[in-house]
Amino acid sequence: MNKATRVIEKEMATFEEYFKQAVKSRVSLLDRIMRYIVNRKGKQLRPRFVLLCAKLGGDVNIAAYRAASLVELLHTATLVHDDVVDDAAERRGFFSVNALWKNKIAVLVGDYLLSKGLLLSLENNDFEVLKILSEAVKMMSEGELLQMEKARNLDIQEDIYYDIIKGKTASLLSSACGAGACTTFKDTDKIEKLKLFGEKTGMAFQIKDDLFDYGNENVGKPTGNDIKEKKLTLPLIYTLNNCDKTLKKKIIYIVKNENTDKAKVKFVIDTVNEKGGIDYAYKKMFEFRDQALSILYEFPQSDIRDALEELVRYTTDRKY
Known about the structure:
The chain is mainly α. 76% of the residues lie in helices and 1% in strands.
């Protein structure tokens, strides 16, 4: 991400200071947890998309920094809550908030982050940004619940899978691009285009994430974790739809009843590889990536556009 880093290096430094201020609290325990979270931040992809989409339309302004902070606050809140739901002890190779401070505190921390984000927008009359992000929060909840509903019967089809990841992942990246764009662009068509660009990028991002479960890269979660959680992702969906009834029945039984048996989970992973599920998922991932780039290419060529293209390609080329 060399160009993406260089083009907004100054803006990211300003954002990080702004974000640190945004999470400050008068409660010492909360401040300690916030410092822990801030010091273990990831690649901060979403704030980068916010600031680059804003810069595509003009100079980055204070509203764009608030939008980036809101996106990061909401994203962090969802991660903290997800770790509680998944009973995850680690996040990005470090102890999760719930592992260190227990579930009750972790839930309250997630609530605090969410409320701080909402107040940040309300207090500054950033109503358009708030509207865009509120829609994303709704879609994220719906996507997660739809996934849980379908996991019960393992009856998910490919179109439902796309509905799930559009809600749980792509909606936030779409809103990040839209929120950034609306701070500098006046043309609503261009804002909508950048939202769609973010959505397509988010779809590719989630498929790549799901593919990690079938590889050997060290990505902070064990291989086969999605199978253990009865999550049907694209490689497995394709395999189930393209194998004989006997094998399909066997795979479904393992996912439902033997998902903690390492040998059985390995059998599923090996079968998905053999039946072309991995190759198919890569194909669809690249289709979404190329759709995102096609939208991006409608904007004039510039270092900013090149930086956004680099970020898009990073989402599908990353190793973790």
